[in-house]
Amino acid sequence: MIKLTAERLKSENDSYESARAHAEALDQQLGLQVEKIEAQLLERARLKMPDGSHKTWGQGLHDGNQTWVGLSHQTLQTPYNELRVLCEYLKPAPGSTMVDLGAGYGRLGLVLSVLFPEVNFLGLEYVGERVKEGQRVLSENGCHLSQLIEEDLTSVEFHLPQAEYYFLYDYGTLAHIRHTLEQLEEMAKSKKFKVIARGKGSRSLIQNEHPWLSQVHSPQHEEHYSIYSMSFDL
Ligand SMILES: C[S@@+](CC[C@H](N)C(=O)[O-])C[C@H]1O[C@@H](n2cnc3c(N)ncnc32)[C@H](O)[C@@H]1O
Question: Ligand 1 pocket check: which of 30, 67, 173 to mutate, most ligand atoms within 8 Å of Cβ?
Fold first, then answer.
């Protein structure tokens, strides 16, 4: 098992293929057992729904939550290189907090711990098996300010924690993402923050239903994600 460094977060070049291949290799070098855990989840899903697909297995296994069981592992997660570029652009201040809404194995926490070790990471993830494995690797890498927690973002008891940054990569069904965006809108009445949305679902919902996120600053659109900034400088 290797120790994660800033240099190791870089893929050979900026192409998406290279970033995905690099991320897969880095997961293995870090001992993050994504393949094994996803294969176990898929086996359970197939037993329950032999005719299902990655569009239905997660919801069938996890009480209607779109956990993307059976999806390609590198589509499920954001490549390390992309997270590196994003964090280097955001330059989060020491003491600020970045929340990953639907955090998978907590890759963002690993990236932050290397590049911005004084920034708090809070990853919220439904699938317990992903959380347990991510926690193990975060702790082995000494990510003291990184927390990965099992949480259902759609539960009525769940309240969004306060943060300066929210990262949201198509975590669930459109109805679930819509619910989270409404919570963010409510929170925005008393606090300023940035939202980084990745994936088609989240970006189109924001564009069509949440103009408040683009009112103060024009969003910055990158190939795979968009950054929406309310007026604040950190
Ligand atoms: C597309 S993945 C993104 C993972 C990670 N944020 C990344 O970018 O690498 C979305 C994650 O959201 C999780 N998820 C789905 N529904 C959820 C819910 N209701 N509460 C918390 N997490 C959820 C899924 O299990 C999945 O791991």
Answer: 67
143: CA distance to ligand 1 center in Å?
20
Residue 234: its pLDDT value, please?
A: 44
| Residue 61 CB coordination number (10 Å) | 20
Cα of 39 vs centre of ligand 1, distance in Å, is 17
Per-residue pLDDT tens over the stretch 4-30: 999 999 998 889 999 999 999 999 999
Q: How remote is the C-alpha of 158 from its chain's centroid? A: 18
What spacing in Å lies between the alpha carbon of 54 and ligand 1's midpoint?
14
Element (H, E) at 150: strand 146-150
Rounded Cα distance between 122 and 222, Å, is 24
φ, ψ for residue 53, nearest 5 deg: -150, 180
Domains of the chain, each with CATH number or no CATH: 1-234 (3.40.50.150)
Q: Each residue of 34-84: pLDDT tens digit?
A: 999 999 999 999 999 999 999 999 999 999 999 999 999 999 999 999 999
CA of 203 from ligand 1 middle (Å) equals: 15
Going by pLDDT thresholds of 50, 70 and 90, the confidence category of residue 231 is: low
CB contact set of 201 (below 8 Å; sequence gap of 6+): 170, 174, 177
Does the predicted model carry a pTM greater than 0.90?
yes
Question: Which residue's alpha carbon is at the smallest distance from atom 10 of ligand 1?
Answer: 171
